[in-house]
């Protein structure tokens, strides 16, 4: 009933998580009200996204360069590695403003039911990074079955190679790291235990 | 903390209605997971939107042609004109599958407080459309202060020129037309009264 291009846009918006027909329609009408410049801006940003944003060759975090901002920052302790599920979790940890090490992004968690096996995750690169200078690997993974399984798997791999710790309980079991507030997370960091 | 292009995208998504930082971030991560083709598709649709989608020169509805699908459809009664606030309301009325006339899109309602005056709306074009063949003008406007003000204004303009009716009560007062279900709307159409 709407012109094709307008319907196309509604269809596109419905691909976003949690966006149904009504919301997609509302977004499309909003965008229709934008100036040519505003629309081009969004279109260009989308095109640039795939062109410019890639993974840090060392840690797997998002970056527009070879190395991400943490890996190339000499003020960060490059010998303490915090392992996270995805780049979003880094932004939660950074919001504590207390952690001064670097990161390693697994890009998921082991999930045998969904067929996510260790070799599909960024785990071998972690093993290769760890050396005699490595002081600690902190496993900051969700306190879920998948998170625990992954933590256990990595702990075993790193056994005898360096200190491995996990976040203390404090994060409610079954919840997600990126919904945790900075204070709770800070407590979990402070109370972390050897794995 | 994210790469610039990624932050840009989060910023862009926050311009959509009801989208906060967390939701925008979630959308950006979703889009990052799309294939190049999927991203180009959205970008192209956005660019096409302003290029292709324009207003019907007769009724103000959205179209990619000179006239919209209703104005150029000879199976619709071109002498019954349903006046609506915006193109979204047309889709609600069409969902009844009962109305066979055409439309006129005002592109807003008179709102003296917000400085929306009659001459900023698509009202003169309505007056120019109405002629001796016009059987009826149905004012399908929101049952709000602005809707009533606009309906009254148009009724006076068309006085003596043709039959003017308004939707019957049945639509809860203070609510919006595009949140009305098809059955309620059908009842309101059937019970419409002369204005
Ligand atoms: Zn890095
Ligand atoms: Zn039209």
TrEMBL record, chains A, B:
<dbReference type="Pfam" id="PF21175">
    <property type="entry name" value="RecR_C"/>
</dbReference>
<keyword id="KW-0862">Zinc</keyword>
<dbReference type="Pfam" id="PF13662">
    <property type="entry name" value="Toprim_4"/>
</dbReference>
<dbReference type="InterPro" id="IPR006171">
    <property type="entry name" value="TOPRIM_dom"/>
</dbReference>
<keyword id="KW-0863">Zinc-finger</keyword>
<keyword id="KW-0479">Metal-binding</keyword>
<feature type="domain" description="Toprim">
    <location>
        <begin position="79"/>
        <end position="172"/>
    </location>
</feature>
<comment type="function">
    <text>May play a role in DNA repair. It seems to be involved in an RecBC-independent recombinational process of DNA repair. It may act with RecF and RecO.</text>
</comment>
<comment type="similarity">
    <text>Belongs to the RecR family.</text>
</comment>
<keyword id="KW-0227">DNA damage</keyword>
<dbReference type="GO" id="GO:0003677">
    <property type="term" value="F:DNA binding"/>
</dbReference>
<keyword id="KW-0233">DNA recombination</keyword>
<dbReference type="Pfam" id="PF02132">
    <property type="entry name" value="RecR_ZnF"/>
</dbReference>
<protein>
    <recommendedName>
        <fullName>Recombination protein RecR</fullName>
    </recommendedName>
</protein>
<dbReference type="InterPro" id="IPR034137">
    <property type="entry name" value="TOPRIM_RecR"/>
</dbReference>
<dbReference type="InterPro" id="IPR000093">
    <property type="entry name" value="DNA_Rcmb_RecR"/>
</dbReference>
<keyword id="KW-0234">DNA repair</keyword>
<feature type="zinc finger region" description="C4-type">
    <location>
        <begin position="56"/>
        <end position="71"/>
    </location>
</feature>
<dbReference type="InterPro" id="IPR015967">
    <property type="entry name" value="Rcmb_RecR_Znf"/>
</dbReference>
<dbReference type="GO" id="GO:0006281">
    <property type="term" value="P:DNA repair"/>
</dbReference>
<dbReference type="GO" id="GO:0008270">
    <property type="term" value="F:zinc ion binding"/>
</dbReference>
<dbReference type="InterPro" id="IPR023627">
    <property type="entry name" value="Rcmb_RecR"/>
</dbReference>
<dbReference type="GO" id="GO:0006310">
    <property type="term" value="P:DNA recombination"/>
</dbReference>
<dbReference type="Pfam" id="PF21176">
    <property type="entry name" value="RecR_HhH"/>
</dbReference>
């Amino acid at each position: 009933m709407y012109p094709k291009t307008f319907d196309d846009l509604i269809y596109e918006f419905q691909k976003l998580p949690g966006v149904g027909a009504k919301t997609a329609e509302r977004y499309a009408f909003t965008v229709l009200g934008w100036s040519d410049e505003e629309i081009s801006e969004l279109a260009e940003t989308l095109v640039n996204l795939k062109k410019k944003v890639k993974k840090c060759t060392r840690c797997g975090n998002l970056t527009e360069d070879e190395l991400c901002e943490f890996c190339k920052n000499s003020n960060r302790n490059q010998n303490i590695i915090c392992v996270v599920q995805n780049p979003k979790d880094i932004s939660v940890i950074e919001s504590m403003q207390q952690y001064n090490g670097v990161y390693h992004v697994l890009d998921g968690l082991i999930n045998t039911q969904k067929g996510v096996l260790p070799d599909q995750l960024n785990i071998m690169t972690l093993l290769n990074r760890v050396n005699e200078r490595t002081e600690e690997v902190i496993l900051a993974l969700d306190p879920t079955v998948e998170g625990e399984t992954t933590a256990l798997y990595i702990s075993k791999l790193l056994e005898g190679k360096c200190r491995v710790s996990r976040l203390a309980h404090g994060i409610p079991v079954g919840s997600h790291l990126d919904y945790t507030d900075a204070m709770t997370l800070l407590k979990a960091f402070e109370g972390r235990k050897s794995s």
